[in-house]
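Researcher: Quick test of sequence recovery. C-alpha cells follow.
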C-alpha cells in the first residue's frame, strides 16, 4: 500500500488540524447543552447521564462564560493531541516505511492486559459512582463502594494505565529493533503522551480540583464530614491498595510512595473558612433549639390531654 504523506512525515500537523476541527465542533454542542465532555470512551454514558439529570455540574463556573469555556476546550485540544502521539507516530510514513513486527509479542500481550485492566477500572468505577449517586438515600454520602473501596479515584488510575498500555504497544517496532534513526527517537519521545496525561490528572485538572476543594466544601457545610474524613484516612488517593493495609501505614509512606502529596491534604485549621463553619454551627444550634422547643411543647400538650 502506498505511503500517504500529509504536511509532514510524522502526521503531527494534519492530526493537530483534525483535532482542532472536531473539538471545535464538539465545543459548539457542549456549550449549547451545558456539559464539558463529548469525547472519550464514556461519551455515550455521559450523554445518557446528562439527558437523565438535565445537566452536568462539572465546570459550572466556566460553562456559562463563552471565552472561559472555550479556553478549557482549547486546553483539551492540546491534551487530546499530545495523548494521541504514540498512535499518531506509529502510523506515520517515517515509521511505516520500516518492516513491522507481527502483533502478538510479549510486549503486545502485556499492553493488552494492562489496557483491559485500565478500561475496566475507568468504565466500571464511573458506572458505580453514577448508580451510587442515583440512589436518593445516598445524597451527600461518600461513595465508598466497589473500586472506590481501594482507591478514591479509580477512574483516574484506570485512564493512566490505559495511556501507558497504548504507548507500550505502539513503541514495539522500535523496542524490537525494526525501526531505527530519527523514527526510533520519535517513537520514544511519544511517551510524552501518557506522562502529560498523568501530570494533568495529578496536578492540573484532576486530583487538585477534587481533593482539597472537595474536603473543604464538606467540612464547611458539615456534609458527612466525619465519614468523609474516615474514608480518606483508610483509602489510597490513586494507586489501588487494600484499606486494611493502607490505614495503618506511616504518613511518610502515604505522602511519598502512594502519591498523597501535601498539596492534596486538607487541614481545617489552615484551609477552611471558619466564618462559614461558625455560621453553619449557629444555624444548626438554632434549628436544634427549635426542635427541642417543639418537642417540649408537644410533650406538655400530651401531658395535659392525659390529665383531662
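Model:
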Amino acid at each position: 500500500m502506498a505511503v500517504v504523506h500529509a504536511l509532514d512525515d510524522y502526521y503531527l500537523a494534519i492530526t493537530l488540524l483534525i483535532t482542532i476541527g472536531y473539538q471545535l465542533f464538539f465545543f459548539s454542542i457542549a456549550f449549547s447543552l451545558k456539559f464539558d465532555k463529548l469525547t472519550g470512551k464514556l461519551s455515550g454514558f455521559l450523554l445518557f447521564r446528562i439527558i437523565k439529570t438535565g445537566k452536568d455540574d462539572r465546570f459550572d463556573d466556566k460553562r456559562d462564560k463563552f471565552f472561559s469555556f472555550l479556553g478549557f476546550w482549547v486546553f483539551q485540544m492540546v491534551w487530546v493531541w499530545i495523548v494521541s502521539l504514540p498512535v499518531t507516530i506509529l502510523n506515520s510514513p517515517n515509521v511505516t516505511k520500516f518492516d513491522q513486527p507481527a502483533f502478538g509479542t510479549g510486549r503486545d500481550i502485556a499492553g493488552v492486559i494492562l489496557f483491559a485492566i485500565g478500561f475496566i477500572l475507568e468504565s466500571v468505577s464511573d458506572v458505580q459512582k453514577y448508580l451510587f449517586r442515583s440512589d436518593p438515600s445516598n445524597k451527600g454520602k461518600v461513595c465508598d463502594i466497589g473500586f472506590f473501596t481501594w482507591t478514591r479515584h479509580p477512574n483516574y488510575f484506570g485512564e493512566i494505565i490505559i495511556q501507558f498500555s497504548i504507548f507500550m504497544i505502539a513503541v514495539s517496532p522500535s523496542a524490537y529493533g525494526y525501526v531505527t534513526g530519527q523514527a526510533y527517537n520519535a517513537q520514544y519521545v511519544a511517551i510524552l503522551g501518557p506522562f502529560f496525561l498523568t501530570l494533568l490528572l495529578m496536578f492540573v485538572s484532576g486530583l487538585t480540583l477534587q481533593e482539597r476543594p472537595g474536603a473543604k466544601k464538606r467540612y464547611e457545610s458539615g456534609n458527612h464530614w466525619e465519614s468523609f474524613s474516615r474514608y480518606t484516612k483508610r483509602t489510597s488517593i490513586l494507586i489501588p491498595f487494600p484499606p486494611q493495609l493502607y490505614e495503618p501505614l506511616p504518613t511518610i509512606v502515604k505522602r511519598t510512595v502512594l502519591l498523597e502529596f501535601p498539596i492534596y491534604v486538607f487541614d481545617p485549621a489552615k484551609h477552611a473558612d471558619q466564618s462559614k463553619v461558625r455560621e453553619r454551627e449557629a444555624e444548626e444550634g438554632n434549628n436544634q433549639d427549635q426542635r427541642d422547643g417543639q418537642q417540649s411543647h408537644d410533650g406538655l400538650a400530651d401531658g395535659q390531654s392525659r390529665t383531662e
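The two ends are 101 Å apart (CA to CA).
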